[in-house]
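Narrative of activities, Objective 1.

The group set out to show that a structural description can be obtained from nothing but a protein's sequence at a throughput compatible with the screening campaign. Below is one input-output pair from the validation batch, recorded exactly as produced.
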Amino acid sequence: MGKELPVSEELLLRMRRAKIYERDLIERVIRGSGPGGQKVNKTSSCVQLRHIISGIDVKCQESRSLMVNRIQARNLMCSILEDRERKQKEQRKSELEKIRRKNRQPSKRQKKLNVINKRKHGIKKRMRRSPNSENE
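Output recorded for this entry:
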């Protein structure tokens, strides 16, 4: 759109942190749907916002005001991208933790317990042998 959007500094900062730039957004103003009768049917106050890079589509018609819907659509876009980024960070962190646990050496006590358990298992298997094979 040609008009400059009057957004708060907080929203601008949030958009920068989420790496959302106005040049990467495609904004369409469309007619809303749902309750509201003739007013909703004839005014174009619903905002459809698309982030080109991520391919995320957001549709906002919370308010009757176009400007409020434009701001809310950007807020919603920020929330979605922040959630996506947070989930990716958590997944990377859990993968690194999994690798770290996998590569960890067992402690001396754990090694000792492993040997004891293996011996117990060996004794149990020897007890299962038939009496004839003990002479061998």
